[in-house]
Amino acid sequence: MKHMLKSIFRSGKFVAGFAIFAAILLGVLIYPIFVPDPPLKIIAQGTFFEPGIYVSVYDSLSAPTHILNLDEASTKRITSKLSEDDRVAIQKWLVGAGIPEAEIDLANTEQLLEQWFSNYDSTKRVAGMTNADRNYYIRLNTAVTGLLGDEGVSIAVVNPDTGVLEEIGTVLATDYVNVGEVANVRVLPLGTDNFGRDVLTELVAATRVSLQIGLVAGIIATLIGLILGLVSGYIGGFVDDAIMFITNLFTVIPSFVLLILISFSIGQDKRGPFMVAMVIGFTSWVWTARAVRSQVISLRNRDHVNLSKLSGHSITHIILADILPYIASYVVMALILQISSGILAEAGLSILGLGPRTTDMPTLGLMMQWAMIYQAHILGKWWAYFPVIITIAMITFSMNLMNTGLDQVFNPALRE
Amino acid sequence: MAVFYFEKEAVLKGYQKYFLNKVLWFIVTLVAAFILNFILPRLMPGDPVAAIVSRMAQGMSNSSGVQAIYEQYTELFGTNKPMIEQFFIYMRNVVHGDFGFSIAQYPRTVSDVIRSSIMWTIGLQFPAIIVGWLIGNTLGALAAYLKGGFDKVLMPVSIFLSNLPAFGMAVILLVIFSVTLKWFPTSGGYGFDLIPNMSWKFVWSVIVHYQLPFWSIVLITIGGQAIGMRSMSIYELNADYVKYSRFMGIKDRKIVSYVFRNAMLPQITGLALSIGTMVGGALVAEIIFSYPGLGSTILTAVLGGDYPLISATTLIITVMVLAANFLIEIIYGFLDPRIKSAQAD
């Protein structure tokens, strides 16, 4: 056993797959300790908030202020305020006023504003400009001038007795707060989804549930496949014929179709994650049964099995002691594959609208379905679907890597 | 001469046996699939007709319509009759192409809904799977033969592709090529402002809408096939007959053709066995592109609680997969020399 583990962990592919898988598992286990929120809690009012650090505006007003004199500050402020349309409008005016177009650089805010202030004159008539345009430029000028000023903004509250606004403080352009001193800061590394839930918290919970679904489905499928394969391979005869008939049937009848049919018949309310896992397990044992059977047939007439028979051991004993150990490595590999295909099956079912009921737990497939229904992919809200795809791909990739590694350890012929 | 006749007869016998076997198996699976399609929903707790009627009552305001569907389904399922009789009623209706009315799209019939979507799915999936299979096998064989840099690039790419779920590939292609680059439309099977007809404008619109769903299925298929073909070819390239042929001084090209023919056979069997899974994945990919095929039909049926539509769609998909499987087996029969030489024993 020790020797076997050693040789398994000497396989680079297995170790790489194992490391990725362990990292995912660790993340799933550790994250909830730091962010214990329920995964389906709606925290945001509105859909698809971008990933980032959200600082409470209210609390930052009462946080201690620090004065920082930074040269770039006003330029940055104007750059972020001056929209692309405004820039184009300024350029149009300047060109109309006789500035050569080559001298105007739309990206260079500082130069653009300098040209604007030195040339703008509200009384000047530019050819082809309507009255509405003129008013627009006057407004634009006021807005831009206001941006440059540093008088600050007043904070006022309504006096409950008189109903009059009373100034309680001013915020200067040079005032800063330390994010650490603001009472309420929420980091949303992956933003929020269409319902206003924290995507990362949801993703971690979904990964956990999907892994559980995969595990349950994989164990059920492997157990059924193992038992049927053992019985059919070892006993042979009519039992073998009957089991093989059923197995061959389910090989060609697509399991996906059975999944759809059964899931739909069960109905949305009764479809919990565990139920979905069971259905997946019961429809995907076919490959394991076939493979186990062919291995058992090749083992059935080996000397040690015959010896065991002659010694009068029972069938259970022979299967457990003389056959199972030889196919154990194969069964483990089959289990790993079943888990990863179970996770994929859940995702496919959920996109079709046949996943677990949506009220108690997220799964990777459900997250994908929500993102697709709310058109996150067309609206460019990558954080709602891309992390989900990556997570699914990483799980299946790590499992396939582990499997290939194991295959090479147990099947010396495959070693390169 | 006598020997020649004898051989020919034996060959024919070998074929005959093989094809007869396959036809028989096709019929058996078809019947089994049909029975499963009938019996699975009825094994579930609750009365399917009652469930349908309760779902219908929520969605419809037209009470005479509800009444019509209720009668239609009591007739179609005949739930008050014994199971065996229900089965024959169901079978007779299905043979006549009568799947009843669609609930979500009432007053359209289920066969009408399916007729309008099935060609999209067949037109998309089977060419895509075949093209993907051909490209994948060619690449895999080349990787095994050329080794070196080609192999080193192709293998990681294939492993990556084969680990991506079909819908993941669909989303990624969609975001890159239609949302960001705007080269292709984001959804549908043809322009939303067009009515299906045979004009050039419509055909062009169909072709443009076809590209992304098609290539997403092709890419996914390539990954798995290339990996399989590569290991199969490596195994064959190291086989004794290759070494022996080399000793005999047979030309390299000739040997390679032997090798690939032999490596190809398990890949054909593999295609037959995995075509069901591929179709399942591709159905989900259809949904991402809102392609008007059976995948999208299933989604609307599920969302609308449209039981008759689901049942008919799954039956049609099963029949399609079984037929594809049967076709592949028949082609395999012509390609595998062992079947030709099987002495009807």
What does this structure look like?
The complex is a heterodimer of chains A (416) and B (345). Chain A has 416 residues and is mainly alpha-helical. Chain A has two domains: 2-43 and 194-414, Orthogonal Bundle (MetI-like fold); 65-177, no CATH class. In chain A, 64% of the residues lie in helices and 6% in strands. Chain A contains 17 helices and six strands. Chain A has helices spanning 2-9, 12-34, 57-62, 73-81, 84-96, 109-119, 131-148, 199-235, 237-252, 255-266, 273-282, 286-300, 303-310, 315-351, 364-373, 376-379, 382-410, and strands at 52-55, 65-67, 153-158, 165-171, 175-177, 185-188. In chain A, strands 1-6 form a two-stranded antiparallel ribbon. The radius of gyration of chain A is 33 Å and the shape is elongated. With 345 residues, chain B is mainly α. Chain B folds into two domains: 7-104 and 304-345, no CATH class; 111-295, MetI-like (MetI-like fold, Orthogonal Bundle), CATH 1.10.3720.10. Chain B is built from 13 helices and no strands. The radius of gyration of chain B is 25 Å and the shape is globular. The model of chain B has no long low-confidence stretch (mean pLDDT 80).
